[in-house]
Amino acid sequence: MKKLLAVLLAALMLFTLAACGGSGDGEETTAAGTETTAAASDEIIKTITAGTGGTTGTYYAFTTAVGQILNTDDYTFNVISTGGSQANIEMIADGEAQFAIVQNDVMNYAYEGTNGFAEAITDFSAVACVYSEVCQLVATKSSGISSLADLKGKTVAVGDVGSGVYYNATQILEAAGLDIDKDINKVTASFGDSATQLKDGSIDAAFITAGAPTTAITDLATTTDVVLVDLGDDIIDSLIEKYPFYEKFEATADSTKYSFVTDTVNTVAIKATFVVSNKMSDDQVYQITKDLWEKQADIATAHAKGNEMVKENAVAAVGKVPVHPGAEKYYKEAGIIG
């Protein structure tokens, strides 16, 4: 009987060890078994999924150009269309993307867990601020809209839910004393859908935050009389005071490349920023960062926004979001940061 009991106890111990033992995959499991923390990896990610925005926006076209130039024999970029900044950050957190282009304001919201983010997301790091994104309020000429005050009671597209555009629209309207949910007939739509609805007259105006010229707006203007609405200096000053990640932007025919802009239109801009998953190795991010700047001339040839990239300002507007160690190594070597 004692011998049988000893055998049973030994079997029970082996079963327990098998059930509780690590799988050898480098993950640490909490006692409750509900969370895992992946160990840092030094492996090269062969196919880097890169989140962008709508196919008619600058994010998609620019990142496609960058990805094609930064492709190597060791890794390639798979550029995909997404719902925009918030979606991109959430995709990185969920492991569905490793690289993305986002607005610098939205990435700070994510890092702090505010403005659409129920909790802080810290699974990503900054690589480079690359160009200014202009907050463009486009209206049909027939709508009669020439100021923010004229939006009251109008039907206005404010970007996709969760996109950076949506928060820009909310904050700009707020600075003008307007409530996005009460004072306008709010429509959530992508750049392409906004342009289509402006063209068919189903909306009066649309907020579009993107590098100018924006393809959706350029194409729209070929068939529809549109105007770029001046936000007003007082409203701009109030906006920047409360949200310092904005910068004033003077939209002209030269700075926007829009033929329908004949006078200076005062608006604001934020910074388009490349971010990466913290799971990407330091060596791989270092190489990506180095190539991004050393191949800037090729990028500029492939897409005009490459001409706006300024290495010295690459991390000046990242805010509270940390720079990835791999990118930081490059910027220290380049003398950009101490």
How are the secondary structure elements laid out?
Elements: H1 2-20, E1 27-29, E2 36-38, E3 47-51, H2 58-70, E4 76-80, H3 85-93, E5 99-103, H4 104-112, E6 124-140, E7 155-157, H5 164-175, E8 185-187, H6 191-200, E9 205-210, H7 215-221, E10 226-228, H8 233-242, E11 247-251, H9 253-256, E12 265-277, H10 282-294, H11 296-302, H12 325-333
Parallel strand pairs: 3-4, 3-5, 7-8, 7-9
Antiparallel strand pairs: 1-2, 5-12, 6-9, 6-10, 6-12, 11-12
Task: Considering the chains and any ligands shown, give keywords for the structure.
two-stranded antiparallel sheet, D-Maltodextrin-Binding Protein, domain 2, disordered N terminus, about 20% strand, 2 domains, 10-stranded mixed sheet, alpha/beta
In short:
The protein has 338 residues and is α/β, with parallel strands linked by helices.
Q: Can you put this structure into words, describing what you see?
A:
The chain has 2 domains: 146 residues, 3-Layer(aba) Sandwich (D-Maltodextrin-Binding Protein, domain 2); 139 residues, Periplasmic binding protein-like II (D-Maltodextrin-Binding Protein, domain 2, 3-Layer(aba) Sandwich). The protein is 36% helix and 21% strand. The protein contains 12 helices and 12 strands. Strands 3, 4, 5, 6, 7, 8, 9, 10, 11 and 12 form a 10-stranded mixed sheet that branches. A two-stranded antiparallel sheet has the order 1-2. Helix 10 crosses helix 12. It starts with a helix and ends in a 5-residue tail after the last helix. The relative contact order is 0.16.
